[in-house]
Each structure stands twice: as structure tokens, then as C-alpha cells.
């Protein structure tokens, strides 16, 4: 086998040439992948929390994201998503009124406009938050769409309840850069949750479900529930009196989310 002037055999030269071609192809693939990602709407798209290269219109310039309250006091906040709707919202409001429990309702703007009579004059003891206009996944929308959606819902909620919401909970708890940007523009606190009602685990067992929630609550817990949806969720709502009684027996006081977060907001008396 002959060698080149550098002491390389023909086989070495062929191997090195193949590696060079493979490397070039790999480099081209990496470049293509990079350009593919660059083609996403990096500024203003769903993943981006910035819009363009100009000044950012972001209200106070920050948006807190909250899962629970930072407290050692035995405080708990009940929250209800997706309403209002005539099937269950009145039932929830009646139960809360009977037991003198304040709660936070994350309302869907289109539902508020459609069922304004359900919440008008019935939320004086409660807090309202924004849960989007039509329960679309805001994390899939670009910044302009996410803002327009939340702003439309914001106006509808304020018009019916007389109070502009200061909290937002995106549908499904999905976050994206556009959601954060829109929330900042509206000077919202973004509220998720640290405990969730798990109705499917307790079919036809409201008392068992209530015990599960009561056992899992810690100081500062924000509990996610729903006042709209599949009938299986009625397990949680039918067990709501037991849940309230169980938490009070453990020394818990019910507050709205804003009272839980403070600062300096006294808990609403709950009997």
C-alpha cells in the first residue's frame, strides 16, 4: 500500500475525506436547524416576553407569578375557575354564603357577558380574577393576541362586577412569554395554585374528596376548583360544606387570594 508525501495511506486519505464530508453535512444540518428556530416569531410570538426592539409597554414593569401565599398563619384561599354558568355557579355562591366563606372567582369574559345576572350583585364578599375571554390556551397566542384576549375579558368583568380584576389565571395554568407580557401590561398578579380538587379520584364520594383536600392544605395554600364543567366535578362541590368544616376544625381561616398575598390586608372574618 502506497503512502502520500505526508506518510498517509490512500485508506487514510479516503477516511479523512469521508469525515470532512460528514462534518460538512452535519454543519449544514445544524445551520438549517438554527435558521428554522430563527424563523419562529422570537419577538412578539408565544414564547417571547418581548415585543420588537422598541420600548416595552409593560405597565409597572413586572408581573409576579404566585403558587401559594408565603405565610405561617393558617390561611387558605379557595378559587373557582371557568364560570359563571347557570348549572353550578349559584350552587357554589349559595354554599359560600351559607358558611360565610370568601373566595376568588377566575371568570371567563364571554361567560360573564352571557350570564351577567348570575354574578351581578352576588360577588360583594368575593374577589374576581381574569381567566381569559373564551378559555383559549393563551400560551399559543402571540403577544398582541394574548393582550387583546385578556383586555377584552378585563373590560367585560369590570363592566358587570363594577371592579376591574387585578389577578389573572391563564387557562390550564399554561404560561408563555406572551402571557407574561400581556399580564405585565395589565398590571396583573399571575395566580396559579398549590392544591387542586381531584374529583376523578373520588367518584360519588364527596366526603372522601373533602377529607383529601383538608388533609393536604398547608398555610398559604391556594386551592383550585371549578364552578363549570363535567358532572364529575360535582363531587367537589357537593363536598364543599365538609371541606369548609374540616378546614375550620384544623384552625384555618378562609381568605381571598389578594388577602392571602397582602401585604397589610386583613383576612375577611368567616364566623
TrEMBL record:
<feature type="domain" description="NodB homology">
    <location>
        <begin position="74"/>
        <end position="255"/>
    </location>
</feature>
<dbReference type="Pfam" id="PF01522">
    <property type="entry name" value="Polysacc_deac_1"/>
</dbReference>
<dbReference type="InterPro" id="IPR011330">
    <property type="entry name" value="Glyco_hydro/deAcase_b/a-brl"/>
</dbReference>
<protein>
    <submittedName>
        <fullName>Polysaccharide deacetylase</fullName>
    </submittedName>
</protein>
<dbReference type="GO" id="GO:0016810">
    <property type="term" value="F:hydrolase activity, acting on carbon-nitrogen (but not peptide) bonds"/>
</dbReference>
<dbReference type="InterPro" id="IPR050248">
    <property type="entry name" value="Polysacc_deacetylase_ArnD"/>
</dbReference>
<dbReference type="InterPro" id="IPR002509">
    <property type="entry name" value="NODB_dom"/>
</dbReference>
<dbReference type="InterPro" id="IPR006311">
    <property type="entry name" value="TAT_signal"/>
</dbReference>
<dbReference type="GO" id="GO:0005975">
    <property type="term" value="P:carbohydrate metabolic process"/>
</dbReference>
